Amino acid sequence: MSEAKAPDESAVDQLNFRGGDYVQEFGYDDDVDAQLRDQIEATIGSELFDDEAQEVVDAVILWWRDGDGDLVDELVDVQTTLDEGGVVWLLTPKAGREGHVSPADVQDAAPTAGLHVTTTARVSADWSVTRLAPKRNF
Questions:
Q1: pLDDT at 7 over 50
Q2: Which InterPro entries does the protein's record reference (predicted)?
């Protein structure tokens, strides 16, 4: 991307969340962007479901860092409650930050997990987001 949006209200706009969306969160830890989480919750009008929830959700946000484990396995697991047409928003630390994940690693993992990369954006000072959508079988 040649032009990134400022990490404020426009960050949530980039994620296309709407009031009433059900969103499940995986990979929460003390390093996540609390402001971004608050903005998502304000937009959808409820708290994010945690990783133990079994509700069918419209979207998943996954905070992922280098060293968290096997990305393919996690991407497969987070899709278990994802509604048809839902997306996975993969949040990874930006280059130069502790836990940075190479975009090549995401590009390699997504197809194996049945997903494809559609867009990548900067949504906060420390995190980038990649939109992963399920592959469609026609």
A1: no
A2: DUF3052
Q: Is the dihedral of CA 121, 123, 128, 133 positive or negative?
A: negative
pLDDT digits (tens, 9 = 90+) for 47-78: 999 999 999 999 999 999 999 999 999 999 99
Cα-atom radius of gyration of the chain, to the nearest Å?
Answer: 14
Q: What is the pLDDT of residue 107?
A: 96
DSSP labels, the chain: --SPPPSSHHHHHHTT--TT--EEEES--TTS-HHHHHHHHHHHTSPPB-TT--S-EEEEEEE--TTSS-HHHHHHHHTTTEEEEEEEEEEEEPTTSTT---HHHHHHHHHHTTEEEEEEEE-SSSEEEEEEEEPPP-
How many residues are given for the chain?
A: 138
